[in-house]
Specification:
Helix content of chain A: 40-55%
Number of strands of chain A: 6
Distance between the termini of chain B: 30 Å
Shape of chain A: globular
Largest sheet of chain B: 16 strands, antiparallel, barrel
Strand order of the largest sheet of chain B: 1-5-6-7-8-9-10-11-12-13-14-15-16-17-18-20
CATH topology of chain B: Porin
Order of helices and strands of chain A: HEEHEHHEHEE
Oligomer: heterodimer
Number of domains of chain A: 1
Radius of gyration of chain B: 22 Å
Number of strands of chain B: 20
CATH architecture of chain B: Beta Barrel
Number of helices of chain A: 5
Helix content of chain B: 10-25%
Order of helices and strands of chain B: HEEEEEEEEHEEEEHHEEEEHEEEE
Largest sheet of chain A: 6 strands, mixed
Shape of chain B: globular
Number of domains of chain B: 1
CATH architecture of chain A: 3-Layer(aba) Sandwich
Largest interface: A-B, 28 and 38 residues
Distance between the termini of chain A: 45 Å
Structural class of chain B: mainly beta
Radius of gyration of chain A: 18 Å
CATH superfamily of chain A: Periplasmic binding protein-like II
CATH class of chain A: Alpha Beta
Structural class of chain A: alpha/beta
Chain lengths: 141, 411
């Protein structure tokens, strides 16, 4: 009896974990953008204002979601290893020297899908359930 | 003389407050940003004042038990993106000035032109990047501490220069390198206590100021090195050396060795920061040299912290030492005793201290942080450290404790 319960419990946990794994934050560009992969440091350079170009030399415009949204925190934690406070501190070092402004912020995944789809230089992140054929998921390694 | 541009900048800022602040990339846009610190500091030494910059005369200790004048400031910045390659920045900072008054002053006002995405050119009042954290040394929110360690940052209190700045960014493998050269001049008025124990001000003029600095960033590591050279004059002290010159060749030699009249002044600084996310450590080392009464100094600090959610406890150790002579036999001629004593008091007035600071930063909201910091400073070699306005009852060479609270914000 206890072992069966344990099995059920484990199965439940497993399916929960896998369903959470499905709802992933992915990095996207427009389908018109040939970009397929970026390294973590290339992505960090684009999002932290150290470069305004993709590795192929084309202009890059990074886009953020709302600073207080959970996806913002997840993106910066998983891909850049930084907390929202660290990101804010980083930008306060650049803004007050006139060396840059943080990425433009869009409200929600839908707005992100539409904006990135319409701009070949845009790069954004969203929950992968919202991906459609107008977008290309960028592999980050 | 600075009143007019300040007024114009303020009017500009006020006008733009009412405008929608667009952040479009390709259309002209204006953005208004601000930063500030509301800070109080208490010193347990009541016979002198602790100040955070040699440009301020009033501080904590003698003037006030708890002083809000040491760390508090407000900065407003207007950035105009005129075309994708042309932009302009005006930053006005209100803080305690050399006369003890809180007044706005233009920190930066320049026009930036991106010749290529990697190469940019600025003209106007530009950043003086002498130290690793120079560019945002006044933005409390951007640093872990209540104030940047004085053992390094006090040596060059100025953070802007009138002239031009060339910045070149390049990639070396996976690292980003930013090379910057700044050329220009700056004038700053500073307060001091004269030989009659009265309050006086003097003007330091830096000319032909060249600073070359390089920052290399790779992942979590950032390394900085800079070299600066100026021709420095503090004419207010020339009369003292003119008296020395009346004593003939021996007096001339002393005047040429110790005066600050178009003298070469050099600063070398090195720094590194490692910040993998949960913790950070950073350190800087700086050396100043000149053949003046300002003596040759070496200062350094090491600071580290650990991030526990919204709380960041941090610890800093810092040290500043003079490595040139702090006394001179002077003329040692009959009747020169008072003059020799004045020169020696200038030399001994240069600070030497070590300090340990323990603090806690609390990021309680998305653009605000509260910091509490305890500093224990030991004045070495009989110096007054960074204390000013010392009273007859003050005993140099001792130790002083500070307790500071600060609220930092950005918008």
């Amino acid at each position: 009896m206890p072992s069966r319960l344990k099995r059920i419990g484990c199965g439940l946990l497993f399916s929960l974990a896998s369903s959470m794994a499905w709802a992933e934050v992915v990095v996207v560009v427009s389908a018109h953008n040939p970009l397929a992969t970026l390294t973590r440091s290339e992505l960090a350079d684009i999002y932290l204002g150290r470069t305004s170009r993709f590795p192929n030399g084309q202009p890059a415009t990074p886009l953020d979601q709302g600073e207080s949204s959970p996806i913002y925190a997840t993106f910066y934690r998983e891909y850049l290893g930084q907390t929202p406070t660290q990101v804010k501190m980083h930008w306060s070092r650049l803004i007050f020297t006139g060396r840059g402004q943080p990425p433009r912020s869009l409200a929600g995944d839908r707005a992100m899908v539409d904006f990135v789809a319409a701009h070949a230089d845009a790069i954004g992140y969203l929950d992968d359930v919202h991906i459609d054929e107008r977008l290309r998921v960028v592999t980050i390694d | 003389m600075q009143r007019k541009p300040v007024l114009i900048a303020f009017i500009l800022l006020m006008l733009t407050c009412g405008l929608p602040l667009a952040a479009q990339a390709n259309t002209p846009s204006l953005s208004l940003n601000g930063f500030g610190t509301l800070g109080v500091v208490h010193s347990d030494e009541d016979q002198a004042d602790f100040v955070s910059s040699m440009l301020m005369p009033r501080g904590a200790g003698h003037t006030s038990d708890w002083s809000a004048e040491v760390d508090s400031r407000l900065g407003l910045q207007l950035t105009a993106n005129l075309t994708p390659r042309l932009s302009s920045v005006v930053q006005v900072v209100t803080e305690q000035q050399y006369d003890g008054q809180f007044r706005p002053a233009i920190e930066w006002a320049n026009i930036n032109f991106d010749v290529t995405p990697e190469l940019s050119l600025r003209v106007g009042r530009v950043i003086l990047p002498v130290f690793m954290n120079s560019e945002y040394r006044k933005v409390g929110y951007a640093t872990p501490w209540v104030r940047p360690p004085l053992e390094v940052y006090r040596t060059i209190p100025v953070s802007s220069i009138d002239g031009l700045d060339v910045s070149y960014r390049s990639r070396i493998a996976s690292a980003t390198s930013t090379l910057r050269a700044t050329y220009g001049q700056s004038d700053s008025t500073f307060p001091y206590t004269d030989s009659a124990m009265g309050r006086a001000t003097a003007e330091a003029r830096a000319r032909e100021g060249l600073t070359i600095g390089n920052t290399v960033e790779q992942g979590n590591l950032s390394v900085f090195a800079a070299y600066s050279h100026y021709r420095l004059s503090i004419e207010d002290f020339n009369p003292l050396f003119d008296v020395f010159r009346m004593f003939g060749p021996e007096g001339d030699a002393i005047a040429d060795r110790y005066n600050v009249d178009d003298k070469s002044f050099e600063v070398i600084s090195l720094g590194a920061r490692y910040d993998p996310g949960n913790w950070f450590v950073m350190g800087e080392w700086a050396q100043t040299s000149s053949r003046t009464f300002l003596t040759d100094n070496r200062g350094w600090y090491i600071s580290g912290g650990y991030r526990l959610g919204a709380f960041t406890p941090y610890l800093t150790y810092a040290n500043q030492r003079i490595h040139s002579q702090t006394s001179t036999p002077g003329l040692s001629q009959p009747g020169s005793e008072a003059l020799d004593a004045m020169l020696n008091s200038l030399l001994q007035g240069q600070p030497q201290q070590k300090s340990i600071s323990l603090g806690l930063r609390w990021d309680f909201s998305s653009s605000m942080a509260i910091k509490a910091q305890f500093d224990h400073m030991n004045h070495e070699g009989g110096s007054r450290g960074y204390l000013v306005n010392s009273q007859p009852g003050f005993d140099p060479g001792g130790s002083v404790n500070l307790f500071s609270l600060a609220l930092d914000f950005v918008f």
